[in-house]
Amino acid sequence: MELVLVHLFPDLLNLYGDRGNLIALRERARRRGIRVTVRQVRLEEPLPRDGDLFLVGGGEDRQQTLVAQALRGSTGQLRSAAQSGAVVFAVCGGYQLLGHAYRTAEGQELSGVGLLDVVTEHPGHNTRRLVGDVVATCTVPGVGELVGFENHGGRTRLGPGARPLATVRVGFGNNGEDGTEGAWCGTVFGTYLHGPVLPKNPRFADYLLRLALRRRYGDVHLQSLDDRAEEAAHAAAAARARVPR
Amino acid sequence: MAAGRAVATLTRLLRVGGGTVLPGRVARWLCPQALEVLSSSLEPVVLVSGTNGKTTTARLVARALEIAGLRTVHNRAGANLHAGLLASLVVASDLRGRPRAQAGVFEVDEATLPSVLPILRPRVLVLTNLFRDQLDRYAEVERVAEAWRHALKRLPPSAAVCYPADDPQVAEVAQQAPVGVPFGIEDASAGRDTLEEAADVRYCYRCGVPYRYTVAFLSHAGHYACPVCGWARPRPSVRAEEVQLRGAAGSGVRLAWDGESVTVQTSLPGLYNVYNVLAAAAACHALGLPARALREAVESTRPAFGRGERLAWDGVAVQILLVKNPAGFNEALRLVVLERPRSLLVAINDRTADGKDPSWLWDVDFEGLCDLEAHVTASGLRAEELALRLKYAGWPEEALTVERDLARALRIARQRTPPGGVLFCLPTYTALLELRQILSRWGVAPPFWED
Known about the structure:
The structure holds 2 protein chains of 2 kinds.
Chain A: E1 2-8, H1 19-30, E2 35-41, E3 53-56, H2 61-83, E4 87-91, H3 93-98, E5 101-103, E6 109-111, E7 118-121, E8 130-138, E9 145-152, E10 155-158, E11 166-170, E12 180-181, E13 183-185, E14 188-191, H4 197-200, H5 202-217, H6 228-241
Parallel strand pairs in A: 1-2, 1-3, 3-4, 4-14, 5-7
Antiparallel strand pairs in A: 5-6, 7-10, 8-9, 8-11, 11-12, 13-14
Chain B: H1 2-14, H2 22-30, H3 34-39, E1 45-49, H4 54-67, E2 72-74, H5 82-91, E3 103-108, H6 113-120, E4 124-127, H7 135-138, H8 141-153, E5 160-164, H9 168-173, E6 179-185, E7 212-218, E8 221-225, E9 238-245, E10 251-257, E11 260-266, H10 271-287, H11 291-299, E12 307-313, E13 316-321, H12 326-339, E14 343-347, E15 375-379, H13 383-392, E16 400-402, H14 406-415, E17 422-427, H15 429-441
Parallel strand pairs in B: 1-3, 1-4, 2-3, 4-5, 5-6, 6-9, 13-17, 14-15, 14-17, 15-16
Antiparallel strand pairs in B: 7-8, 9-10, 10-11, 12-13
């Protein structure tokens, strides 16, 4: 089997160890004998047509504007990739831009890709950033508990067309009010969880891999891996999240 | 001045133990203007701020001032928030609240800098660099830069700002300074031609397009230019014209400014310390100190607490390198790879001073470690996260032990070190404090406030 992973704007959206998500997907596929190709897409470059899974990371506010422009240029391509069953997975700043719109702390309105029915607003630099550990229960069947770390000023609200990715047990989530974290719809996923999220939540990583492979190979069985190190890191993160610090 | 006197009296009472912060907290509670009052007679005042290199650079500058004959007060233990600055002044003051020193050298936390600049009114401000660090606290590198940009505009016209020409973001910010003293490495042989993963500022502040680099030294520090607007690395007035790196043994650097040239040998290891020497040279130049004072200061300065010091322990050497962000960690790994030790202890904590989110480990290039024949002992509160990172970097499972308890981990790592060998320890900040405590309990190291 083959899998093409596409990393969008790695030199802009590389905040916070999010390349760990790419490493996790790549290594977990390779350990199952899947041939993995990673394509890095920089600003102004077209998206590859053969991508099975598109990763969008988080960035700083200034980069958000650049990325919003770049993503708008690729909206059509990203939309048709998702319609053909490719997975789109976005973290933090990338997640915000997958929605309809993002209003920056300065009040600038950035239009998003519109792949997720969410809207984000940054209430301004003088408001509290939502920072800290997160433990949440994932709504994706079979994934269970998610652990990660959030750090965002923007507040995201879900429309009727998006499902929350998780319900928060520790932490703020999308907006610190409604107890939801992230959003998903079909094969498009957005989350505020850094950490990075996929290495420590291997069942979620495997879910995304299976979904990405489905486009070409139908339902596939992924052999189970020795995940003791992953589970230990997950447990350590969850335990630290429950200690006030 | 009643409060000032009370402060000073308290000082004497509080001088027990190694407390480097508490006297400052008490003084500030008694007299909110204490920092301004106690520092007002100091001339010159030098402030050192930035992500990496504050402690070492401040030590070098303080030493040079002492050698030039000025009694200097200095927050040398690295307590660099408001209370820590004040504590160093309180401890160095007499009963009437007057400092027993002429000059002051203070390292200042980068987020604290804007608030203390108008109070301490430095003659020289040294900016070392800006790297991605504890984002849970500083939010974003760009916001620190923005705060600096505003703070520099309010400096008095006589203040000199020493800044790294090689760091595009800091160099751009420093254009707001009344007087700029750019420093940089000219010797391209000390660099590489590609940027590493941890590099975070690579886009022109004005145009938003990527800088073009002809050489990269350390993370995003190098020789760069914007292809659109033409903004490029300023020509440094204090230059490292020749750099000879000798791994953990230190470096030789030929420094030049204003037609003067001096070669210094430093036992401080790694290219990042070449930048610290260079930053100190720029400060000495701005202060008008003789080159001799700089050279003596550099050559008599041993690595600071956890900054590459080597301790003897029962037939092996222990070398401790503080790691706190991807850029610094990559430099430490580069040294480790050169030295090829058989045993390595890495201790990752996630307390406030370490950064509560250990995800930055995923931006460290552990992949480059994998051809090393060594055993890694992973320790600290997030030992498991480190172990997972190493697993995904391809590090063999049988060459790794996970032991959260630092004392036990240290024993394991010690056993893995052959006689006469070097045990490398890479702790985050609070793990470093813990490590030092354990080593001093075992008689290997002195307590840190004696450093």
